[in-house]
Amino acid sequence: MELLASQEDMSQDEALRFLRKMEQSDQLGSFEAAYQTVKYLRQKISDSQWGKAREALDLVKEQSARLLKGQRESSVGNMIRRVMKIIKDEHFSSGKEKTDERDTQESLQKLLLADDDEEEYNQPKENLKESVIDSMCELLSELETSAEIVCANSLEHIQNNEVIMTLGNSRLVEQFFKTAVNKKRKFQVIIVESFPNYRGHELAKALTEADIKTTVVSDAAVFAMMSRCNKVIIGTNSVMADGGLKASSGTHTLALAAKHYSVPLIVLAPMYKLTPQYLSSYDQDKFNQTISPHHVLPYNSGEIINRVSVSCPLYDYVPPDLVSTYATNIGGYAPPYIYRLLADLYHPDDYNLKQELNS
Amino acid sequence: MLFEENVRRVLNEKSGPEISEGIAAVRTLLELINSGDATTFSELVTKLRTAVKIMRECTNESISMTSGCELFMRFISNIRDEGRDESFEQCKTLMLERGNKFVKKVDSSRLRIAKLGSQHIKENSKILVHSRSRVVLELLKEASKDKQFKVFVTESRPDGSGRDMAQELKKHKIEVECILDAAIGYVMETIDLVLVGAEGVLASGGIVNKIGTFSIAMAAKAFNRPVYVAAESFKFSNLYPLNQKDLPNKHKYESLTEETIDRKKHPLIDYTPPEYLTLLFTDIGILTPTAVSDELIKLA
Fold this sequence. Notes:
Chain A: GO terms for molecular function: guanyl-nucleotide exchange factor activity; translation initiation factor activity. Chain A: Keywords: Cytoplasm, Initiation factor, Protein biosynthesis. Chain A: It is found in: Cytoplasm, Cytosol. Chain A: It holds the Pfam family IF-2B. Chain A: This is Translation initiation factor eIF2B subunit beta. The complex is a heterodimer. By secondary structure, chain A is an alpha/beta fold. Chain A has 15 helices and ten strands. Chain A has helices at residues 12-23, 30-47, 53-68, 74-93, 108-113, 128-152, 154-157, 171-182, 199-209, 222-226, 251-260, 284-287, 304-307, 338-345, 353-358; strands at 162-167, 187-192, 213-217, 231-234, 238-239, 245-248, 265-268, 315-318, 325-328, 331-333. Chain A has a seven-stranded mixed sheet, with helices on both faces. Chain A has a three-stranded antiparallel sheet with strand order 5-6-8, covered by helices on one side. Chain A starts with 11 loop residues before the first helix and ends with a helix. Chain B is an alpha/beta fold. Chain B has two domains: 2-107, Translation initiation factor eIF-2B, N-terminal domain (Four Helix Bundle (Hemerythrin (Met), subunit A)); 110-299, Translation initiation factor eif-2b, domain 2 (Rossmann fold). Chain B has helices at 2-14, 21-35, 41-58, 63-82, 88-118, 134-144, 161-171, 184-188, 213-222, 249-252, 289-299; strands at residues 126-129, 150-154, 175-179, 193-196, 200-202, 207-210, 227-230, 236-237, 269-272, 279-282, 285-287. The chains are: A alpha/beta, B alpha/beta. The interface between A and B is medium-sized, with 26 and 36 residues.
């Protein structure tokens, strides 16, 4: 994955440009959005005067209201949560001699110890700012290497002479296949073209240039083609808290077909895609986004335009039991294990970011 | 014998229709520490153990009572390990102080669950509820503050606890319809989600609840409806049954008021395996069934 930004500080100009992009809901890739968000927040945190963790948290909250305004990329919210967790963690570990990190997660164990957990983050701590910024730099490096690490495992997932199906276009999937082919694996890829934006065609172009045997099929052919596939490997927009997926529309069909033929479904998901939100398929309004239906039914198709309603949703919710494995940058996990990762990455108070921001 | 009477009296005082057996038992134990005349640690622990035994005998020993008592005894021994160098009196003060916090936490867990769980109830959804559960009631009350929804409650024979539940929901201005236990298959296509409480949450991630819960969960699975469980974390228990017969009989058969039913043949609870459950709403967060054993292992 090409890095558009380096770890260097954002200039005033860059920061403003980034903020404008976010507010006008310009489409950034989920990686780019996550990376820029952390960089932007790091800039804000190092530029402002603060001594207590509470002040830093308020600062982040104030900024995130602007960042989240027009964004449909969940990775922005995820990164804001990561940063808030960093501040909270550093608050407990810095200044004190005690290095054991306090477990911020609620647990039976904690119930047993009857700890007071009403933490206001109001005591000033020494070196808090430095350690927060250090941890944020670590987070940035983690983001930079995440795709590479996911792809490093490609040989374990792709065997010789396999037929692999994928849907649409994901930069990560493209890189994953290319890594495998560079290591001399021979395999064939069937790409579902993904109507109406035909992002599958872009992937097909990239893969054929890398000398991978590629077949493009229409969305309707998923079921017919599935019986001859060994594996399905896809990217996703986000991984939901219950282990389900929010992925581009058509993925649910693909997953059901894979289940029917007992074809394993592997999802490539770097950790910044993991979101602590539960949204279920029966709440489509909140979950989904619809885009211009121009491709489905062009505006110039005459009288019929007035008679029908056309909807073009962007996403599908895929329930966790249809996913076999998540290949992440910290290892492979089964969907029921997602809740553990969630507990490691985010503070439970920050799960519901919108509510938190309003309070 | 004097001690036994004392335990019974305190337990009676602490129990009530709105209080879970587990909480009542924990409160009783705390009260016994407070008023007791034990002078050493082992004396205290022996006394508490006897008290637990007495409480089990004089009630329809529920799983939540067993798990609540177990958790509390573990809590006591934790304090003992910590306060090795301190005198018994100091330990006792510490114990009471922390014990009160513990009870407070346990008490507030129902509200926490209500807050966490209510976000899963959407506007205009139709919810199937089985039997009477205080946590579920609290959750629905919380959700009704800003949402409209309809609840179907099973009548839940033989004690008809579902009818009580329906009454209470009505009192809180929630649209409710009481249905026959046998009508579960009929309503399943109309509802959006199933919400049940639990008497105990087991190490497998499955739950033990009022008889009929398993059938509802199976029907829900057949219709692809999510099954949510609302339960406090003190109900987590180390049991790991593989089938219905594995459930200890002492939990299965309670005293029945209805005489037409042979109580030796008709269990009042059943075990619902984890694969039929979608999520558990607990005071320690929203968990997948797999997470339960993780929590229990962390304790050990």
